[in-house]
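[recover] target loaded
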């Protein structure tokens, strides 16, 4: 009977395997399958008992000892693996070793998660097997490393119809509902990091910040998201956060609306009238913010009026002759800012990469000894750049130490208003004719007043310290064409976040589409293909054959 015991053992092992498969795939164990598993176990034990003599001889052999030792080592390895997996589940932390950190959460995401002051529930409705669900689950697992304020639950809208009806779910192909108290936000198309964080910001923000772009002077169009010169792409990013964007025409409205926290002047082609400049000054003196982006030759009166904020905008063109900071075939008008180009400030501290500007003018501090306004030059060119003052006539531009400003040349500066009276709101005599222009307080003359009648007055405002002004000698970096180049988008968004006082939202934005890429020539590709498809497998086969022949000789 012992000669046929292996048949009983094989049948019993198959029966046990069948029961194991049923137990793994079914929530409820059927009686017949339990009986099958029990009968299989009995048959295996019976086969071992019938062939007990052979089994005893095998257990006493050297091969059994080696097998037992190998089994013990395998068991130890499995135990170590299970222990490491338990520790990894309990102390979850992910490392991203890619050069672009494409699999790590962005700094802005981390700062927002760590700054949450209320609990947020994320309800994800996805049918089983969707790739979007797996990707979202991996992303949300990373959120838990930085906050315990976010709880996540996944639901199948088919098997959980009551929960789906509660949240008004109409599709099984993906809906993410963010809930904080009674407020909710829904995502039904994009479930990437940026979309989720923007929804969190909108959900937790008590108020929406209003950004006002001036119009009426042929500025860049905030509604244009298709052409290269529009800034609609930037506006779409702003609207994805807790911002609302509108246009404002100061001359037509008679004042800057109080709802405008930040007024953005984007490279106007026509100069601002004196009354409009006073409206901007009143806006800043009342504790609000102003962002001015002007390129060379634009609006000389507005550029000069920036002196009231202790900022000097040069009538020049910044050129870069350092080959390490040149792009586009060595075009000197492209300016690359990176590393030591940036001064220490909340706007620029998170920026670790480069910013690309094109056709830039200088911006800097006017009077270092002026009190009441704190000015800081945030971004400067390399020491090899210069500000060309005779840019209209120069055919082969070269720095002239006698007239041109030599590098490093500042191209971005900020001013914080400590004493609003220093701005001198109303210091511009609003007149027409040859006497029109800016006259310092106390310097008005009877001749100037008599030359033409006054056509405006001092805007009404309540002085309040804390106004902020940022001036950048370029607007191209914020346009649709260059916004996604290097860290241009982050510079613009960080600037606006600082202007509205949202320092927690200043950081590097997520960019899931960025990744490292290695480009190979055809020869390099052929070598890699031969090594991976022929050489490496061939060496493995030769090693195996050699080991087999060596054992045969022994």
């Amino acid at each position: 009977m012992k000669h046929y015991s292996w048949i009983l053992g094989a049948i019993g092992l198959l029966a046990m395997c069948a029961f194991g498969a049923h137990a793994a795939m079914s929530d409820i164990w059927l009686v017949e399958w339990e009986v099958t598993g029990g009968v299989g176990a009995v048959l295996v034990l019976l086969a071992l008992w019938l062939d007990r003599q052979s089994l005893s001889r095998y257990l006493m052999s050297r091969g059994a000892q080696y097998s037992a030792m190998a089994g013990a080592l395998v068991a130890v390895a499995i135990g170590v693996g299970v222990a490491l997996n338990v520790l990894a589940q309990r102390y979850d932390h992910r490392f991203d070793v890619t050069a672009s950190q494409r699999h790590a959460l962005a700094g802005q995401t981390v700062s927002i998660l760590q700054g949450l002051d209320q609990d947020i529930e994320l309800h994800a409705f996805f049918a089983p097997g969707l790739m979007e669900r797996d990707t979202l689950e991996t992303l949300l697992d990373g959120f838990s490393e930085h906050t315990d304020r976010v709880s996540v639950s996944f639901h199948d809208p088919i098997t959980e119809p009551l929960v789906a009806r509660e949240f008004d779910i109409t599709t099984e192909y993906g809906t993410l509902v963010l809930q904080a108290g009674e407020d909710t936000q829904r995502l039904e198309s994009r479930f990437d990091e940026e979309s989720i964080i923007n929804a969190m910001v909108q959900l937790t923000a008590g108020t929406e910040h209003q950004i006002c772009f001036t119009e009426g002077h042929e500025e860049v169009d905030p509604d244009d998201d298709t052409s290269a010169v529009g800034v609609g792409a930037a506006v779409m990013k702003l609207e994805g956060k807790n911002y609302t964007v509108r246009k404002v025409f100061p001359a037509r409205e008679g004042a800057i609306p109080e709802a405008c926290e930040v007024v953005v002047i984007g490279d106007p082609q026509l100069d601002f009238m004196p009354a409009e400049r006073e409206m901007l000054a009143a806006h800043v003196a009342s504790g609000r913010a102003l962002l001015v982006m002007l390129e060379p030759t634009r609006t000389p009166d507005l550029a000069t009026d920036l002196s009231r904020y202790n900022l000097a905008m040069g009538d020049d063109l910044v050129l870069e002759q350092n080959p390490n900071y040149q792009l586009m075939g060595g075009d000197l008008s492209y300016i690359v800012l990176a590393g030591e180009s940036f001064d220490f400030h909340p706007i620029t501290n998170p920026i670790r990469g480069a910013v690309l500007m094109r056709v830039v003018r200088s911006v800097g501090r006017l009077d270092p000894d002026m009190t009441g306004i704190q000015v800081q030059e945030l971004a400067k060119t390399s020491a090899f750049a210069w500000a060309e003052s005779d840019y209209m006539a120069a055919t082969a531009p070269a720095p002239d130490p006698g007239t041109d400003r030599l590098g490093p040349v500042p191209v971005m500066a900020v001013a914080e208003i400590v004493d609003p009276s220093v701005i001198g709101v109303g210091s511009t005599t609003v007149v027409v004719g040859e006497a029109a222009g800016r006259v310092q307080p106390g310097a008005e003359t009877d001749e100037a007043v008599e030359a033409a009648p006054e056509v405006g007055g001092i805007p009404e405002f309540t002085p309040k310290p804390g106004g902020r002004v940022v001036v950048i000698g370029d607007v191209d970096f914020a346009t649709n064409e260059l916004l996604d180049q290097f860290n241009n988008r982050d510079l613009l968004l960080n600037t606006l976040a600082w202007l509205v006082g949202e320092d927690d939202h200043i950081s590097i934005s997520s960019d899931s589409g960025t990744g490292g890429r290695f480009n190979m020539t055809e020869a390099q590709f052929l070598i890699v293909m031969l090594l991976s498809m022929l050489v490496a497998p061939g060496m493995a086969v030769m090693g195996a054959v050699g080991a087999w022949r060596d054992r045969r000789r022994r």
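[recover] notes: The chain has a mean pLDDT of 82.
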